[in-house]
Amino acid sequence: MVESTQVRRAVYITTTEPEPRSYGKRVVMGGILDHLCDTHGDDNVHLILIAKPDVEVRPTRYHLHVVAKPRSTEQVWSLVSRVVAGPHTSIQEAAVYAPRIAKEIGELLATIDADLEVWDTIRTGQYAAGVPRRRRVLYEDDLFSERYKTMLRELNGPSNRQVNPLGEFHKMLPGPARPLLSRKSVYRPLLRLESRLVGASERNQPAWFDATLLVNDEETNRLRTFTGRTDIHTLLPMLPDVAPLERAPVGARFAFLGGLDYAPNADGLAWFLSNCRDQVLAALPDFELLVIGKGTEVGVPEAARWGEHVKFVGWVDDLGETLAGCSALLSVLRVGSGIKIKVLEALSRSLPVVATPYGVQGTEVSEENGCLVGSTPAELATLLARAADPTTNRTLSAAARETWEKRFAPDVIRRSYDEFFS
User: Fold this and answer.
1) Which of 217, 264, 276, 291 is at a distance of 20 to 30 A from 225, taking alpha carbons?
2) Which residues contact 282 (CB under 8 A, 6 or more apart)?
3) Residue 214: other Cβ atoms inside 10 A
4) pLDDT above 90: residue 104
5) Does one domain contain both 96 and 231?
6) pLDDT in tens, 385-406
7) How far apart are CA 333 and CA 268, in angstroms?
8) Where in the sequence is the domain holding 30, given as residue range(s)?
């Protein structure tokens, strides 16, 4: 735990645009930033963002400082000098590294003069070793190396279709390299290499920080074992509370939440649509699935055989009324790491969950928490039918909200945020 001294000013360093809070990572970041502002005052919180020079700057409570991301020439130099020649950092670290950026971050930190630095993942954490030591926390979020291992497992399995996993960090790479790196013959060995290199950074960087934070107990314990360090802790996301609307499920309607530009979402949905149709429609002839998220309105080819049973909705500004009309959230992920924000959002809205084990990863939930978990098409079909039963659904709904209030609500999570950031 970070030593207990008064924090006057805090700075958060990241490569992720913090606004709008339209998907999981930004929601989690928003929870940390809101807590820092609430605790220390808006004027005493700064964010350093490594991004495109023309990034849209939105009004924020905190001070935003943009450092231009590496140019293509800088990225090529960094990939050669830092991945190939040494110090053998990961590709995603090298893609956001440049000596110019190290200098600018150092100058900004000296000007801001913060008492607490929060470095967001190993991508920015690599810069911490080159600046004067202050109280600093590495927010590792989740172990990318574990996510890549599960993706490689599915790539080697009988999956009908696997989305290009370089979606994880392809936006950071030089533009001309992206078409080449999107070929399966290239990204398969590249993902294997990246998993190994990322794993090394995940194990090495905690030594530079006063505390390292992950969102998943299992991964926290794994990293503690790898490093032998006791200053690695779990920090659950702090999501805003919502007042659940009165639920009125419409038939056997379910919701799948998540953009399909995120490989685990696309892979999980493709697997479900390809393998579960006959069992699900036999159990629930009136089954209806709403696929909700940025870019989902284009659909996927695997949905063709389902006809009107699957609808691609696209982005929805306010999920409240839409989810109130659903029997449950469907979270059928087969790969991943960290914690599933969509599951926490469902619990906060009293919405039951039907999921695969990876679909509820990091939450440690079961039926007594309003979540039904199965692995095979037959199991999922049975669980969907149970969730659509009105009596069972009411029981699951009450359990979901109770779990939120006892384990994940802001008033519960805020205590651990106070320990690390106040």
Assistant:
1) 264
2) 381
3) 28
4) yes
5) yes
6) 999 999 999 999 999 999 999 9
7) 4
8) 10-144+195-235
